[in-house]
Design a protein that fits this description.
This is N-terminal kinase-like protein (inferred by orthology to a human protein). Residues 544-768 are annotated as: Disordered. Residues 565-574, 693-714 have a biased composition (Low complexity). The protein is 48% helix and 6% strand. The chain is elongated, with a radius of gyration of 48 Å. The longest helix has 34 residues, at 734-767. The protein is mainly α. A hairpin with a 2-residue loop joins strand 1 and strand 2. Among the domains are: 18-95, Phosphorylase Kinase, domain 1; 97-235, Transferase(Phosphotransferase), domain 1; 444-543, no CATH class; 564-766, no CATH class. The strands form 3 sheets. It has a 5-stranded antiparallel beta sheet with strand order 1-2-3-5-4, covered by helices on one side.
Length: 768
C-alpha cells in the first residue's frame, strides 16, 4: 500500500497534463512566454500555451477570467495547470496581432479587408463587455489572431466595472472611452507600424481614407458619449468601413443556416468570384471549414464544389485527406444528378488525392451507378471519369465490374456520343487492364463458339461489314494455338469469302443477300434463314450449350429398363464392366445426351429396343462438331467362344447418328479369322454356299469402307450434288427426310425385336 501511495504522489503532473508542454523558452510577449502545443490524445487538435514563473505575473488571473467568459470573439480557454511555481494556460491556437501582421505578406486592398474583418470582431467583443458594464482597460496589447484569421480579445486581468450615472463622473478608467481610445491607437499602429512610445492617438498617416472618420470618433474625448453598437451599425451601412465583400462573405457563411434558400445560390456564385481576396490562412481555416459545414448540415448542394476544389489546392496532403476526402465520399453518394455531374467534371482536380482503398471501398459502388443512370449526361460523365480513376481500381473493379459496364454502354447505349466515348475510354485505360482481359478469350471453346456465332448469323451482316469487320476479326484465329479453333476459322472465312465472290459476280443478288440485315421480328435461327455453307455452324450452335468437364467417374452398369440385369450379372465381370463404362469424352460437350448404365451388347440392344423413337437426321451436326474426327460405324466387341457355349448373336452394323452416343470406349476390331462370327453368318458347306459367303463378305466390306469416309464438313450436307453457293436443296422437303428417318428407326427396332425373340427361343430350347 505504501508503494502505491508513493508512486501516486511521485507522479509528474506534466506527464498527466492533457496538453503537450514545450521544453524550450518559447516566445516572450507582454510579460509572458508562449509556444505551440497540441492535445496528447488527438495530435491534430492544435493549441497555444502561455506560461510564466514570475510571482508578479497576472497569467493566473487571466486564466480565471477567460474560464468564465464564453463569446465567439473572446479567446477560447482550454486548460491550465501550475507546476513548480510555473503557471501554464492553454488556449486555442493563436498569435499576437503584431506577430501575425509581421508574418503575413498582404497587399494594400487585402490588408484593408483583413483589418476591416478583425476590427469588426474586436468591436463586437467590446460591445459584449460594455453591455455588461465592463471595461477591458488593456485592448491595445490583448488582441490575438487565430489560425482562421479571426481577431480575438484576451488579457482580462485589468477588467473593471463602470456606470454612466451622475454620481459616477466619466473618467479615463471607468467609461467606454478608454477602450475606444486604445483601439484607435492600435489602428494607427496597424497601418503605420507598432511603437511602444505612443500614448495617445496621432494623425491618421497611412491609414485608408475610408477609415478616417471612424478613427476620429474613437480617438477624440467625445468617444465617451458613443456606444460600440452605434459605431458598428454606422459602419455596416453602405460606404462604411465594415461594408465590403470580404466582411459580407464571412458573415453570410457564419449565418448560412439562417438564410433563405433564394439567397444561398447567388451567394455561392459570388463566392467563386471573390475567393482570391482571402489570404491563405483565412481561406484554409475559415472559409473552407464553413463551406464543408454548409454542405454537411445544410442544403448547399453542388454549389460548394468549385470553392471546395479551389480552396483544397491550398491544403497539404494530410490535411486534404482529413478534411476534403470525407466530404467527397458523401458527395459521390448524393442522389442529386447535378451534384454528381459537376463532381465528375472536376474529377481531375481531386483524383490524385484519392487513395486506392477509399476509391474501391467507399466511392466505386456509388460511382458505378452512373453507368446505369437514365440521364445521358451522368452516363457520359461517368465514362470520362474512369480515365482518371482506372489506375487506382483493384483487379475486380477494373477488370470485371468496369468492363461489364463499358461493354453494356459500348454495345447498347442509344446515344452515339456515349458509345464513341466508351471506345475512347477503353483505349485510354487499356494499359491498366490485366493482360488476360485485354487479349482474346483464353478459353478455346469460347473462341470456337464465337466463330460459330459469326457464321450462323451471317445473314445479319452487310457485305461491307463482312469485308471490314468480320474477316479481319476472324483472320487472327487462323493462327490460334488450338487446331480446332483454326479449322473453324478457316471454314468461316471460306464461307464469307464465297459470299463476297458471289456478290461480286452477280451484283443483282446483293439485295437478296442482305435481305435479313434490317429485317424485323424475333425468331430463333433455323435452316430456312441460313445458306448451305453456314449450316454446319447453325447445327452446332443449336445443338447444345457448353458445359464444364466433370471429373471422370466409374459408375456401376445399369439397364435403362431396371436393375435386374445388373443384379443377375456375375460378380467376376464387374471390373470389366467398369472399365468399359468409363467415359472417353473429355471435351465437356458430349455428356449432355449420353445414356448411362449400358454395360454389355445385350443390354445395349435392350436399351435400343426400349428407348423412345429418336428423330435422326443424317445431316445433323449438332453433336460432335467440336471433335472434328472421322465418323465410323460402331463395331461391337465379340465375346470369346469359351465364355458361353451358346454365343449370342451380334448386332448388325448400324450407322452412327448424332442423337445418341455410346458410353463405351472405341471397340477393338475383331480377329481376322473370326469373320463369320463378326458378320453373323453360320458356317455352311462348300460349293455354291461358299460363293454366296464370299459375295456377302465383299458386299459387307464395301459398305463398311463407304461408312468410314472422313467428312470435311462442307460437301456432305446436300444429297442432290448441286454445287451452287447458297442452294438450300439439301434441306428441301424437310418432312420427307424426317419421315425417312422415322422409317429407318422403325426398321431397326423391328430387327432388334426379332433378334431378341430368337435369342429368347434359343435360351428356352437349351433349358428344355
Amino acid at each position: 500500500m505504501a508503494s502505491v501511495l508513493s508512486s501516486f504522489f511521485s507522479r509528474d503532473p506534466k506527464s498527466q497534463f492533457a496538453y503537450d508542454i514545450p521544453q524550450g523558452p518559447g516566445t516572450y510577449y507582454n510579460g509572458v512566454n508562449f509556444g505551440d502545443s497540441f492535445k496528447k490524445a488527438e495530435a491534430d487538435e492544435l493549441a497555444t500555451i502561455f506560461w510564466s514563473s514570475s510571482p508578479s505575473s497576472t497569467l493566473k488571473v487571466q486564466a480565471q477570467k477567460l474560464r468564465t467568459m464564453r463569446h465567439p470573439d473572446i479567446l477560447t480557454y482550454l486548460d491550465s495547470i501550475e507546476v513548480d511555481n510555473t503557471f501554464y494556460l492553454v488556449t486555442e491556437k493563436c498569435k499576437p496581432l503584431s506577430v501575425y501582421l509581421e508574418d503575413m505578406t498582404l497587399n494594400g486592398p487585402q490588408k484593408e479587408f483583413v483589418v476591416s474583418w478583425g476590427l469588426f470582431r474586436i468591436m463586437n467583443a467590446l460591445k459584449f463587455l460594455h453591455e455588461a458594464n465592463l471595461s477591458h482597460e488593456n485592448v491595445r496589447r490583448s488582441i490575438y489572431v487565430t489560425a482562421g484569421g479571426d481577431w480575438k480579445l484576451a488579457g482580462f486581468e485589468r477588467v473593471t466595472q463602470f456606470t454612466l450615472t451622475s454620481t459616477h463622473p466619466l473618467s479615463d478608467f471607468s467609461s467606454p472611452r478608454t477602450d475606444l481610445n486604445q483601439l484607435a491607437i492600435l489602428l494607427w499602429e496597424v497601418f503605420n507600424g507598432f511603437k511602444e512610445g505612443i500614448t495617445k492617438p496621432e494623425a491618421p498617416g497611412r491609414m485608408p481614407q475610408q477609415l478616417h472618420e471612424l478613427y476620429k470618433k474613437m480617438a477624440t474625448p467625445a468617444a465617451a458619449k458613443l456606444t460600440v453598437a452605434e459605431l458598428i451599425k454606422e459602419n455596416r451601412t453602405r460606404g462604411g468601413f465594415f461594408k465590403n465583400k470580404f466582411v459580407d462573405t464571412l458573415l453570410f457563411l457564419e449565418e448560412f443556416q439562417l438564410k433563405e434558400t433564394n439567397e444561398k445560390q447567388p451567394f455561392f456564385v459570388h463566392l467563386r468570384e471573390n475567393l482570391d481576396i482571402f489570404p491563405d490562412d483565412i481561406a484554409k481555416y475559415k472559409v473552407l471549414p464553413k463551406i464543408i459545414e454548409t454542405y454537411e448540415y445544410g442544403d448547399a448542394g453542388p454549389n460548394i464544389l468549385i470553392p471546395l476544389f479551389k480552396l483544397g489546392r491550398l491544403l497539404a496532403e494530410d490535411e486534404y485527406q482529413r478534411r476534403i476526402v470525407p466530404c467527397l465520399v458523401k458527395l459521390f453518394g448524393s442522389p442529386d444528378r447535378t451534384t454528381r455531374v459537376k463532381l465528375l467534371e472536376r474529377i481531375d482536380e481531386f483524383a490524385p488525392h484519392l487513395s486506392s482503398q477509399v476509391l474501391n471501398d467507399k466511392i466505386f459502388a456509388n460511382l458505378a451507378s452512373g453507368f446505369l443512370d437514365t440521364s445521358p449526361a451522368v452516363r457520359e460523365s461517368t465514362v470520362k471519369a474512369m480515365v482518371s480513376l482506372a489506375e487506382k481500381l483493384n483487379f475486380h473493379n477494373l477488370n470485371v465490374e468496369l468492363m461489364k459496364y463499358l461493354a453494356r454502354l459500348q454495345g447498347a447505349d442509344e446515344h452515339g456520343g456515349i458509345r464513341t466515348n466508351t471506345t475512347i475510354c477503353l483505349g485510354k485505360i487499356a494499359s491498366f487492364l490485366d493482360p488476360s482481359k485485354r487479349q482474346m478469350d483464353p478459353f478455346p471453346p469460347s473462341r470456337m463458339a464465337a466463330v460459330l456465332a459469326l457464321s450462323a448469323t451471317q445473314q445479319f451482316y452487310t457485305l461491307m461489314d463482312i469485308a471490314n469487320r468480320v474477316l479481319p476479326a476472324l483472320a487472327p484465329l487462323t493462327c490460334d494455338v488450338e487446331k480446332q479453333v483454326r479449322d473453324q476459322a478457316f471454314k468461316a472465312i471460306k464461307g464469307f469469302m464465297e459470299n463476297l465472290e458471289k456478290a461480286s459476280e452477280h451484283p443483282e443478288l446483293i439485295p437478296e443477300i442482305e435481305s435479313q440485315v434490317k429485317a424485323g421480328g424475333r425468331f430463333l435461327l433455323n435452316s430456312d434463314k441460313v445458306p448451305q455453307w453456314a449450316q454446319w455452324a447453325l447445327k452446332s450452335l443449336s445443338g447444345k450449350f457448353y458445359k464444364g468437364t466433370p471429373p471422370p467417374e466409374n459408375r456401376p452398369a445399369t439397364s435403362p429398363e431396371g436393375s435386374d440385369a445388373s443384379k443377375a450379372a456375375p460378380s467376376a465381370a464387374a471390373p470389366e464392366e467398369k472399365k468399359l463404362e468409363q467415359s472417353t469424352d473429355v471435351d465437356g460437350w458430349g455428356d449432355l445426351d449420353e445414356p448411362s448404365g449400358i454395360g454389355s451388347i445385350d443390354e445395349w440392344a435392350d436399351a435400343l429396343e426400349s428407348a423412345p423413337p429418336v428423330k435422326s437426321d443424317e445431316d445433323d451436326w449438332s453433336s460432335g462438331w467440336e471433335t472434328l474426327k472421322p465418323t465410323t460405324a460402331a463395331i461391337p466387341t465379340i465375346p470369346p467362344p469359351s465364355a458361353d457355349p451358346f454365343p449370342k448373336k451380334p448386332i448388325a452394323e448400324k450407322k452412327a447418328t448424332g442423337g445418341l452416343k455410346l458410353a463405351l470406349p472405341k471397340p477393338k476390331p475383331p480377329p481376322v479369322d473370326d469373320i463369320d462370327s463378326l458378320l453373323g453368318i453360320k458356317p455352311t458347306g462348300s460349293g455354291a454356299g461358299a460363293d454366296k459367303l464370299t459375295a456377302s463378305i465383299s458386299s459387307q466390306l464395301s459398305i463398311s469402307k463407304q461408312k468410314t469416309t472422313t467428312s470435311s464438313g462442307w460437301g456432305d450436307f446436300g444429297s442432290s450434288g448441286s454445287g451452287k453457293f447458297d442452294a438450300n436443296s439439301w434441306g428441301d422437303d424437310l418432312t420427307a427426310r424426317k419421315t425417312d428417318a422415322a422409317a429407318r428407326n422403325e426398321a431397326r427396332r423391328k430387327e432388334l425385336a426379332e433378334k431378341k425373340a430368337s435369342r429368347t427361343t434359343t435360351k428356352q430350347t437349351v433349358n428344355f
